[in-house]
Amino acid sequence: METNGKVGLFGAAGAAGQIIAAALSAAGRDYRVVGRSRQPLEAAFGQDPHAEIVTWNPDDPASIQAAAADLQTVIYLVGVPYDRFAEHPPLMERTLAGVTAAGVERFILIGTVYPYGRARSNPIREDHPREPHTFKGQMRLAQEKLVLAAHGRNGLSTLVLRLPDFYGPGIERSLVNGVFEGAANGTRAQMIGPVDVPHEFIYLPDAGPVVEKLTRTPEAYGRWWHLAGAGTITQREMARQAYALAGQKPKLMIAGKTMLRVLGLFNPLMRELVEMNYLMTEPVVMDDTALTGLIGPIAKTSYEEGIRLTFEAARKAASAKAAAGGGGAAKAA
What family classification does the UniProt entry report for this protein (predicted)? Predict the structure, then answer.
């Protein structure tokens, strides 16, 4: 029987870290959350007796090694600003050196579809070529090549788990977060178009139990896997359902590639979105038959249910904000 060794979440303060931590906690497992700043970690995990809070400086090899001490598994969720993707490979190189020096046995990178580039046909399996035509895809590919090359070295086993775009309650960095905030506040939702192309999203809480299971599935290591969403849906249909829950028709402001270019003159983040806009016009849809073959059936929340839960969380947040700030939530973002 596989032992449940301690897991560390590096870059834990974001949405994925909180969701994976919740799955570890639900399984009765102790875990360590690692981040640059203590305050957001305390806010997110301070109430969980299973959580140990550690801060690190990912630029300092000794700090990385200390953060990984006594861990069996490291789950890597470290983000960098969208306009600083060149930092991904050197940061991963330092992290792998630190966790290896600390004697970590397993390393999981939560990855993206960026390294594939354009899909040759959908849905794609893991044997699809990795030929990124974007800078961000090239940096993510370099990052995951480092992870996979470290497999079998100094007692370390590694894997990459690819997720599609995600959504869920309170997940501000979701592509479609504006839809739920707009519906909850009765305001216009800002969206990145085109919005009528079928797109794959994962309801992010569904990923938590899968990652927890992979930490104790030794035969999963040495390769990459796909975790797909519950089929595809258009952004417009998501908006229709979310606004319908609020008893309204959708109010959308859609920025396509041309608009992103214009906005990018003033906003570096918008400028960075231009090169990845191909994923809106030619989405990559993943097939996760291989993963279900390994770990068994994966529970997936339907879009209808996921949209309802995400909308309800947004409505609750809007009500709390209105109560605290005298109606400030009704202002357009």
Answer: Belongs to the NAD(P)-dependent epimerase/dehydratase family.
